[in-house]
TrEMBL record:
Key words, A-Z: 2Fe-2S, Iron, Iron-sulfur, Metal-binding, Redox-active center
Top-level lineage group: Bacteria
Name of the protein this chain belongs to: Glutaredoxin
Residue ranges occupied by any Glutaredoxin domain in the UniProt entry: 17-81
Amino acid sequence: MSGINDFIDNEVKNNDVVLFMKGTPQFPQCGFSGQVVQILDYLGVPYKGVNVLADDALRNGIKEYSNWPTIPQLYVKGEFIGGCDIVREMFQSSELQQHMTDAGVPVKAA
């Protein structure tokens, strides 16, 4: 399990924005992952998508890593932001855009 944990830790720490999701940004394989991809794409935020469907150990490992039971999971500058509902609520209140800006992640002007 430590190999998966190291992989996750590396992705989280070496990418400003990383989304652990079902499918890929080009082809999300669940509605919740798709919604977060749409939000990130709308904001023009550069991010890395990690497909948890590619590996069962990864799918279970990310849940343990974050202590969060669902996927997708969004990380910004090493910080766990949340899943689809939290990301959507933060986006609708402009809190997500502000958080990205505060973290030094470029966001496209609305």
